[in-house]
Write a structure and sequence with these properties.
With 100 residues, the chain is mainly α. The protein is 23% helix and 0% strand. The model has no long low-confidence stretch (mean pLDDT 78).
Length: 100
């Protein structure tokens, strides 16, 4: 049995809406490093966490995410968010995508 997938318009629209939340974020192909300071032993894949050149990190988000979210919400005739909800987590931004 071979699975066949179709492009669904609602799925494409959902993906585009999420992508539009980050419009304006510059593409950074340079290598940046971050090391987990909580690890002082060999990682499972042989990474020495004491070596400051042994990790990768994503580029910081510098766009106005809330402004972009508002534009997406207005375009979709949704209630417009007034603020991003802050969570106690290592990430500054946590986004949830839900279907109404």
């Amino acid at each position: 049995m071979k699975l066949q997938f179709k492009k669904q318009a609602y799925q494409t629209n959902a993906v585009n809406a999420v992508v539009d939340c980050f419009v304006g974020q510059p593409n950074n192909s340079g290598v940046q490093y971050r090391v987990d300071p909580g690890r002082a032993q060999q990682g499972q894949q042989g990474i020495n966490y004491e070596d400051q050149s042994a990790g990768f990190k994503n580029t910081d988000v510098i766009v106005d995410v809330l402004g972009n979210i508002k534009k997406v919400q207005q375009r979709q005739n949704l209630n417009v968010s007034q603020a991003l909800i802050q969570h106690k987590s290592p990430c500054n931004i946590n986004l949830s995508v839900s279907r109404l």
